[in-house]
Amino acid sequence: MPQPRPYVVIAGSGRSGTNRLLDAFDLHPVTVCRSEPEEMIGGDFEALPGAHPPEPPLGEDFEARWARAVARARRRQSDRDRIDALDKTYYAGRPLARPVLKLLARRRLRQDLLGRLAPGLRGQEWDRPMLCTNADALDAALLVLKIRPSSWLLRTHFGDPDQIVVHQIREPRAFLNSWHNRWVARDGGGAETVYRATLRVLPAILADFGEDPARFDRYSEETLIESELWLWRHLNETLHLALRDSPRYRLVTYEAFDRDPAAETAEVLKLCGLDAPTSVLERVGAMQNTLFGARHGATLDPALCERAMARVLEGSPLPDLLARSA
Q1: Are the C-beta atoms of residues 50 and 56 closer than 8 Å to each other?
Q2: Which alpha helices (DSSP H) does the chain contain, by range?
Q3: 124 domain residue, yes or no
């Protein structure tokens, strides 16, 4: 396995712009970007405890298992990655890179055609084809992981001097509306289905804040919104309070990135030890924000959101933190 070297973890709740931040990193020619590898069945990160809620104890050997997954991550790919990002230093001078990666990016061709020659390609995560890759340039590139489980970072950050955490937070009203549009109104199978899934992890989170879970025994629109806001507070507040004094931690708000993505990207790249070429920043500035476009407008009752925020965020430092960066 390659020797340890600095790597970045993008953290934050869903619908907070973490995908767009990963895309900004991926526009740099000296990065290897991996998107949610813990979702890829059979992959290194998916095998770690805590990859799927509810999270079990991580175990005494978690650090070693995490280090192994990170060390192997540059030489792995998955369906969640932008496989055909060809403008990378590790593909320069490799004429086979373009045709091979274009084939790999097409799932059916990869699984049905190439999978006959290399059965490992039929899975959701596979070994990167090194025949078209400069191994030295790949191992020297900055690894960027976008992952969901914050418990992994709380466990490993201070014992791993190579880990840089970029934590993205979005203003809670906008987050709630985007979450509702994506998971309740469109892809979640209905409000009560989403609520039942949330209840798998909610009691443990409420216990951390000294809250009684009994009031969530029955579904209502108000308990649906409040339950998701508790998850939002728990992830973001726990991570920020634990890592805020680390020199290898940076908070990026969705709103600040939206105002000037090039400037925010330049600051993050500087933290990670990368230059910020004008050509890269111009491409970042030109990115289309399709994830949070006009079609994802507000749908929730504003008064309902305000009530939930008043109850859930009482005593939290997050509202003031977001107000200062607005």
Answers
A1: yes
A2: 18-26, 62-73, 97-104, 107-109, 115-117, 135-140, 150-156, 172-179, 191-198, 202-208, 221-243, 254-259, 261-271, 278-285, 302-312, 318-325
A3: no
Amino acid at 229: L
What does the alpha-carbon distance between residue 104 and residue 110 come to, in Å, rounded to a whole number? Answer: 5
pLDDT score recorded for residue 114: 85
| Integer Cα distance of 105 and 90 in angstroms | 17
> Given a cut of 80, is residue 293 above it in pLDDT?
no
Distance between CA 17 and CA 251 in Å, rounded? 13
What is the residue range of 48's domain?
A: 7-74+141-325
Write down the pTM of the prediction: 0.94
Q: What is the mean pLDDT of the chain?
A: 93
Tokens 């070994």 belong to which residue?
127
Report yes or no on 106 lying in a domain. Answer: no
- Give strand pairing partners of 169: 253
Query: 176 in the Ramachandran plot: left (φ > 0), alpha (ψ -120 to 50) or beta?
Result: alpha
Residue type for 318, please? L
Average pLDDT for residues 138-144, to the nearest whole number? Answer: 96
Element (H, E) at 142: strand 142-146
pLDDT surpassing 90 at residue 56: no
The CA distance from 130 to 138, in Å, is 10
Amino acid at 116: R
Q: Does 79 fall in a domain? A: no
The total number of structural domains in the chain stands at 1
pLDDT surpasses 90 at 259: yes
User: In CATH, what number is assigned to the domain containing residue 303?
Assistant: 3.40.50.300
The reported pLDDT for the residue numbered 4 is 66
275 found inside a domain: yes
